[in-house]
Amino acid sequence: MALKLTAEELNDLTPNLPVNENLDTILDDMGIKLTDKELEDLKQSLPAGGEKIDAGDLLSILKHMGIKLTAYKNVYLKNLIDSLEAVTGEEVDVNDMKTILGNMGIELTDKDLTELVYNLPVDDGKFYQKRLLDAIKFLKGGKIDSSKVDTVLGNMGINLTEKELEDLTQNLLVDVNGKVDLRKVMNEIKYFTGDKVDTNKLQSVLGNLGIELMPNELLNLLKTLPVNADGKVYQKRLMKGMKSLEQGIVDVNKLDTLLENLGIKITEEEFMDLTERLPDDSERKVKLNKLIKELSAVLGEEVDVSDLEDALKDMGIEVTYDDYLHLVKTLPLDAEGKVYKKRLLDGIKTIKRGKVDINNLDKLLENMGIELSEKELKDFSKDLPVDVDEKVDLKNVMPRIKDFTGEKVDARDLKNVLGDMGIEVNDKECVELLKLLPVDGDKKVFRNRLLTGLKSFKGGKIDISNLNTILGNMGIKLKNKELQSVIQNQHVDANENVPLKKVMDDVKAVTGEKLDVKNLRSILEGLGIEFTPKEYLELVQNLQIDDDGTISENRLLDGVKSFKGGKVDVSNLENILENMKIMLPDKELKDLSQNLPVDASGMTDLHKLLKEVNKFTGGKIQAKDIKKVLGDIGIELTNKELWNLMKILPITDDGKVYKNVLLDKIKSFPAGKCNVSKIGTILENMGYELEDEEIEDLQNYLPTTDEKKVKLNKVMENVESFTGTKINANEVDDILKNIGIELTPKEHWKLLKTLPITSDGKVYCNRLLDRLKTFQGGKVFENKLETILENMDYKLGKEEMKDLWDHLKIDENGKVLLNSMIRAASLFSGGKINACDTQLYLGNVGIEFTNKENQDLLNMVPLDDNKRVYKNRLMDAVKTYRGGKVNVDKIDDALENMRIPLEEEEIEELCEHLPVDAERRVKLDLLLNAVDEVLGEEINYEDWEDILRNMGLSLQLKENSVFMKSLSLDAAGKLYKHKLLDGLRSLPGVRLSVDKLKPFMEQMGFKLEEEEYQDLKNNLPIDDEGRVNVNVVMDEGHLFTGEKIDTGNLKIFLENIGIELAEDKGMQLLNNLPIDAKGRVYVNRLMKELRGLKGVKVSSDKMEMFMKSTGIDLKEKEIQLLKDHLPVDDNGKIDLNMMMDEVKNVTGEKIPAGDVKNTVENMGIEITNKEHKKLLKTLPVSADKKVFKKELLDGVKSFRGGQVNFNDLQSVLQNTGFRLEEKEIKDLKTHLPVTEKEKVDLDILMDAAKAFTGEKVEANNLKNVLSNMGIELTEKEHSMLLNSLPICDGKVYKKKLLDSVKPLKGKKVNVSNLETLLKNMEIEVGKEEYEDLLNHLPADENEMVDVNMVMDEAKAFTGEKVSVSNLCNVLRKMGLVLTDKDHKKLLKTLPIRTSGKVYKNRLLKGVKALNGPKVKIKKMETFLVNMGIKIKEEELEELMSQLPTEGETTVDMKDLMDAVSYIKGNGKFNVNSIMEGLKKFKPKGIATLPKLKTANDMKDRVTGHMAVSEIKSKLKLNPLTKVPISHSKRDKDLPGSPQCQLKHTEKKLNASQMAAFQDAYNFFNKDKTGCIDFHGLMCTVAKLGMSLTKHDVYNELKCADIDQDGKVNFSDFIKVLTDKNRFLKAVVPEKETCLDLAGNPGILLFEILSKLVEISALPRKSIREIVSYFQRKFQQTGPGMLWSPYTMGYGERTLKPDICTPPSSSMAAFANAARIAIMKEKDLFKFLEELKRCNSHSDSPYSKIPIFPLFPNVDGVVMGKPFKNMQKLEMLRRKEPLNFFEDYFFHKRDWKTQAANIKSIDPASGYTNDILTIDQMLKKKKTYTVADATAIKQHVKRATDTYNLGIALEHRKEMLNLWRKIRGDLIGLDSKNESFYDTFSTYTWSWNVSQELLSPKDLRLHDTYVNRNSSRKSRSSSSSDVSECDTNLGRKRKQKGLKEFQQ
Q1: pLDDT tens digits, 1348-1384
Q2: Contact status, residue 824 vs residue 807, Cβ threshold 8 Å
Q3: Residue 761: left (phi > 0), alpha (psi -120 to 50), or beta?
Q4: How far apart are CA 276 and CA 272, in angstroms?
Q5: Distance between CA 108 and CA 1553 in Å, rounded?
Q6: How many CB atoms lie within 10 A of CB 1780?
Q7: Using CA atoms, how far apart are residues 1923 and 1528, in angstroms rounded to an integer?
Q8: What percent of the chain has pLDDT over 90?
Q9: Is this model's pTM higher than 0.85 or not?
Q10: Are 847 and 873 in contact (CB under 8 A)?
Q11: Is 462 in a helix, a strand, or coil?
């Protein structure tokens, strides 16, 4: 049994077989070859049952059958064999063929018979009967006996009813012998295949296709149709009848569907051409016969497929039988079995082996619509390869046709034509080019032919900047990498031009030589790569093959390299890599071959090989440069992200990492950001080769921030769809049909427009499937649903699949809407949850179920085998179930999880009307009902299209991008009706036909009666075309909303709002109003009509009531202002129209909410899209979606967001209503913080500008003004104020005056004057609020309070007020979650007014004081804004990473604020420009430079982050000095002396020490009681840049809280820091491995104190006292510890590896240093050797471990045999003698000489020449080129060096002073060890000169000089401070120093 199945047969066999592997592979191994069709038939015929046998048994059974079966799973053998026989039929001998056909009634000529046998798969003289019948269908000849047509059809498996057979035969032409052509029969039979339709529903069926028939036309159609007994007819036969009938009307809106059903394939361009030809009809209808006629005009005449052979002959085309069959099978035949000529010509272009007579070329071209002149035809024929029969292959003709299509250009103007294209030719070159071109009689040439000619032209130049476009016009499409390679090889002239020929040569070099695709398999084998047949086909499909069937060599190699398939022989690795143009050194090649995974046959996967090769080819980079390397390609990482990345990178021993390994790791890295504009560069570096179209598509679909940044992981997620297989764009429809998705032509065109199709017409299959998930349109075949889901990566279990079916609505044709399927499938995506956890999960999001309700819910959802359910599916079931209750405080969480899109304002409105119980719960069913009222019904994509069509807006709005973007469609294209209608309300530029006004108003929710509708229509400005703008309709329609009143009560209503009308006026009013059937009228409409009446007046005392009736909300002040400005008559009345005009001046015009962003930006304010949404939420938008300009201005003034250009401040202030004098603006500018981009935050500007509003006071009366408020000034303070205030015309704003008082220290005010002060601050407080304020102000014994504190506390009583009754809603909106207990506690502390309101700021202050509030994570940003904290996007991301948010929806408020403090306290500040930074130095001489410190100086000395703002700017890091000790007492103070050992008792702190510790205590953040609480300690830790968890800080607080009151007071602070045991714990941890807080709690205060000393954050005196205290404490404690090196882990014991771990705290580092200080020499050498071994290579000088220079006199100290390592060191030292420590490690420069040679400073300016030069250069230009930057770089470097040298010189002096102060020359004399010279020298290291400021030699020379002078003085006077011993020692050292100096 050696069956050969076709691909069709194999496809049919596969699906129903219970085989886990691919059936085609199984059958192939079995020797069974099926055709595609046979495979398809087999699949359909296989039954589900059958006997199952094991593959092992099957193997022996099939052996006897001649079938080879490899190891597969279970196969239903019986079903397989039965199905194969059913598909292929029985075997027939080829010699019996004629007899068999004759018996069937088919007669063939010998020629036909030979042709048939040739095309049959004959094996051993036999073939399968069914294959014979299939082959007959496509025979050119053959006859059938007319009486045996039904027999022939029956044998072919086609069974027709009597009526159908009669219908078929009556269309056949019978010859005199009673025979009919076989081709005609086969053509006619096509109408009796496919789906059937019910003729009882024919009108509906045709209506769906867009065809309308009159009753008589429908009857005529039915008469022509062969309807069977059950009233059905084949759809194809129906469409044939429709087309031949040519009756009926066609709906143009459904034209594409009709054409598809008629079998007419049409492109989008042809479709647009067709619709333009159709007569313009307002209802978009056209007659069918007219449509058919215009189709022929667009697509050419029709050709009957049975006449195809003749049609080809007429064109002069000869085709092989195979090509003929292929053409017949692939041509798109219409309902009558005909093909349009244009489609036929498209099919001819695909013929591979056709030929055309060279002499008949003109006939072929003419048929293709190409008319050429004689010269053009000659040029076309030139160089065509012609065979001996004067025939030329079609495949050579077709590519040339492109050159002779398209537009023509004037050859006489060729130079300009080329110039416009970016190609420059001179006159001579132009003449030469014309000689090569076929110019017609009109002196014109085809543009495409011109571009082809340019490819081989030797002259011309092209604009390099336009290279890609020019090459594209020539039909040359280069990949980005190839294009860049070509550009880099060009030598550009002065005009940015390059030679055209050079470019074309480089293009050829880049792409490589052309290879024939026919030879591709052998080429790949030559490369040494083996592919399976399947891999080979997939590879070919992905290759960029040219039209002539060739591919460039380099593109082939690129395609192979990126292909994930193929295997190579590892033993032939070098040759394979060389063939692929990859060259590796021998060592790397050896490493590569050893590391590759090899199978048993010695083969390895190609892609694994290339992945390993990739590591070696990218080179290495320094690990420290990773951030810079990534930044250069466009990837930004924070320091924390960089650290996390470093953890996963394999860093080599030399501190480097392979660049390609880095890029490979970054692909899966979860953090980092990218600049969207650099996506192409990033992906190219990562190895992705995307075309421009694909990159653009990717950029458009990435979720970017306002700064055009995107998360790296989002890029990598999206780029995955640009991998895998590529398909031709023209095959998309066929591919989708194969997997079961059907699109209409329009949908197909629409989908293609959304896909990134490259220039070679391809698109990634993954991208196609990804785009389908959000595509609106298409249908899915019911029987292929699982295939589609699998292709789209939806993995559903059995129960889930069953549940999915329940969500789908299947139409009568067995199809499902694609977006409906996607929506249902989306329920089975995302995370899953255990069934046992559903109740808890729902409770967390605010939905509460009883146990019974929860069980009922679980019964509704499908659980997988692990009893888990998708969260999305669970929430969908919740909406369906509608049981349970919802916690109102979590209502937004509940709605969001149920995917109900409500805005915050809508939720608030919803909550106001919900029936909430005492526990603040509402029934879920009632909530969902309320939601339905707010949102309206949920409508499908098709339904909302119908709604728009019914309103006459479909075409306008579907093409309106603004409208489409405003719609919140879900994945399935559904949206809520009210959301759709809201999008229409204020849409500009959309016009509505008045005929559609009524349905439009109904759809928009207006319920108008006839009178009202007519009134609306009469008031609309309708144009000549009967159209009106939609937004105008909505404005007028707003009058018919709101409250209605009875006209019988009209008089009373008017009187209530202050209007009295005379009888005639009242009648006039009633006549003009649209009154409904119940005698009522809308109030809004009434108010408009009132304004139209002349002489109407309003009572002034009822003005407020009138305003409310008109919907205008004015404040009391504004109403009073109106009354003051409006003229009131004797009766106390005001003219209505005059009042409304004045109201308009107050409120400003109304602005549509959609125009707010443009309006704000026109004011000069920049806001992001995110900020725009926030701003809209703060504005009072009316029902007609508008906002008054005044309200907008007020909103802008209090908005926390937006920025303003510093140069535009004046205009912005004017636009926002501020009127400032020039002097005031100048003062304002000086106090504003400006960013480096010259921007000012809007809120800061507005707050500062508010100081220039309100009342002004006389400048000469300031003292009295403030005195009246209770603030007294001294003369000096008064003078300071006058000098600092912006006084204009002798006056100053009172607010500005009070702001200026704040900086004055110590100002107090008496409590009795508080009300006066508050009034002057324009703060109105009620009685309750005033008492609350007093309670928070600490008054002294004189009843005085600090002014600053008053002003700060009073801010709580400004801004917006909120209702206490709505407090829960207010807190919920801000993201706060309070327990009932906290809620009650908060209410008790709030000063609530009698109106039931409280200031929002005061409310927030009360919330801050609570301990338990939590903040919703998703509303964290909103909460921070309400707290007055502005946070940047990157800060918000860091904040999220700091908080323990995993699995939580809330976070503790205090934890959040602590984290914010940490993030905000980073201590960074910017210098605005180079000049600003340099000018701050202002040196008058080089010595003065170091007195001013910059951020860089601090950075050099501070470890980690610290809050620089908290440290006084005058503080700088100075070296810690030892406390001066009297030399006479020196010996007894040494740690080892007996005197010291006796002093164990603790002494009390003296006054100076107490003050020093008090200064340290004051640095901490404290609560109101002055104690350090948890929050204060957390803030302090954050401020100092120390990274600790909350848990650690909490434990440290507990350890330091001696009196157990939950806080650390000063007493606790002192006790902790003076406790000996705690001190020992800090400097000598109990565990050697625990050198940090986590393992050694209780030492945090010591660490903080050490940090304060390190950063010089305390006064110098305090630092000295603290250091002195702990020095003595350490000396006193030392002997009490076992300070033996052996107990410390050194000496004979093996060194522990912990030495390689750097200490995590400064105190631990100090402890390590302390151990080293008392080690013996040999132990110290061991320690240093181990340290050196652990130390990784680094260029930092601090990483260099000094070996022997620290011990210059070691020879005289070490006794006995030297250590063996010391012998090596000695040999090294003798071999290469070194003078100083620095010479061993660095190549030092003589910086002191360099400093001495610095040019003098200009005395006039106080600056060096370099600084002055920079100043001049910066003033000359505002923009800079790279050359300018290079020029300025040297000056900046010299200026910087000058500054650094100045600092170094000054610091050197300080170091020498310190050396003298501590008498460094005496240290070490007692042990005869002078190593302190080296130690001190190392201590003087400076980054300003990158070396020590003082070398040991410098110190010795200095000592010599000092001692020489001091010895001279000692002769005349003796010193009491120096002993005789010391003098002698000094003399010895002096003599040694002189000796060295002489040497």
Answers
A1: 888 888 887 887 788 888 788 888 888 888 888 888 8
A2: yes
A3: left
A4: 6
A5: 122
A6: 17
A7: 7
A8: 1
A9: no
A10: no
A11: strand
